[in-house]
Amino acid sequence: MSFDFELLRDAIVFGLLLGCFYAAVSLGLSVAFGLLDVPHLAYPAFLVLGSYGTYMLYTLGFDPLVAGVILTPVFFVLGILMYRIYYETFEKRGADSGVRGLAFFFGVMFIIEVAIIQMFGVDQRTVSASYIGRSLEIGEMRIPNRLIVAFIVALVIAATLYLYLSRTFTGRAIRAVAQDEGALRLMGANPVAIKQWAFGIATATLALAGALLIIVAPIEPTLDRAYIGRTFCVVVMAGLGSMGGTLIAGIILGVAEEVVKIYGASWAPAISFGLLLVILAVRPQGLFGR
Amino acid sequence: MALELTVSGVEASYGAVRALAGVSLHVGNGETVVLLGTNGNGKSTLMKCLIGSVRPTAGMITLNIDGAAHDLTRLTTEEIVNLGVALVPEGRRLFPKLTVEENLMLGAYRSAARAKIADNIALSYEIFPVLKERRTQLAGTMSGGQQQMLAIARALMSSPTLLLVDEPSVGLSPLLVSQTIAAIGDLKRRFGLTVLMAEQNFNQALKIADRGYIIVHGEIAYEGKSRDELANNALIKELYLGAAAH
What we know:
CATH architecture of chain B: 3-Layer(aba) Sandwich
CATH topology of chain A: ABC transporter involved in vitamin B12 uptake, BtuC
CATH superfamily of chain B: P-loop containing nucleotide triphosphate hydrolases
Strand order of the largest sheet of chain A: 1-2
Strand content of chain B: 25-35%
Oligomer: heterodimer
Radius of gyration of chain B: 17 Å
Helix content of chain B: 25-40%
């Protein structure tokens, strides 16, 4: 096969935009798993739930992005309830809560999948909007507007989370809580309340991320499985809990997937797990881990 | 502000192991009281009872602030901190992956301290200039002495009226122990704090003590009404003979 420069250039540009989308869907996990150490395996299921929520509001006449914004506070409350159940049934009992938590979230993932199938069936769903289907033409390149929308929203979520986590008292407490809960208590903060709030925020990001998911491509109930590898890969590669790192790790995954697609599209789904294993072996603290 | 801490008949245990067997002591407004004792005699357990992280099985802990009495055995740690009590814990307990400045900011978490955050940070940097130089460094990468300074500064960020210090000398070289304890004395004067310090380094602790207690096997074995009384009693000589070299 001769080397095709244009193909590679397109793959990199596409990968960059796709990567920002991957970052957007991973930022909440960066908080839940990266900062709080909660093995949130059901995270991608909540992402797909966000997409179906967007779809439902879309059928009522809302723009998909507006639907994502409307669903954000709903998902925040959902996240708080989710953490409450996890805390009362697992974390509070200590010791091997990690492994049991994994089983718990695995179960939650299946419940969400089945609930979605019951409500919406297994057919693919899609939405339309003025920014879906059109492209921006730069020279010979055509960049789909839906990827540009995803790119912008990803930057907005990442910047908002970064500012919140570094500039507010609660944000700093969220970053401190997994490092030493007892010490945080000595500062006058309640670690359980802090974690619950943070879990709410992590889940809230999935409303907009879910809207992006259905804007970028059609969805189906078991789409979450493709995102387990992608989201965990991005979060671990970033270095647990780094928002800027999550953005860059997302881009690396996006570019890697697109470049590999040139040579063998069937390998693309394995890229995320492959990268995850390499990172764990070579640099377990992640690219930007402290 | 008038403040008074009264501990009476406090007992505490870890499972079958009794750590405190009826401890009574008293700290008056503006005093620096030291709680002396070697390892494993219950100093840290008492400190944990005072901050609400260990619940006594018997006894009373009362903090009187301007005539209002608060029963600390019934309050959570958060509520005790909000009354203006700060603990510099044994082993420092910093947030190792946050910067020096972020650790200090977390110290000012309680609402009463947030308004004074700029003043308190400036004061912390004035008293411990090394913290200013290293304000963007991760706390976990600093030396033991610097970490102890940060732990003390972080406690002061909450604008406390009662400062509890648990074993500030652990893991520090003799010179640093002397500097750290001198800094606590200095801070106490500048902030008008009331201080209760648990310490096993008797000679150093006495430098800033108004008076103190000696705790042995979970009981107060001796009460010294002045620094001289403490320094010259027979029990101290017995417990610290040979250990008082520095």
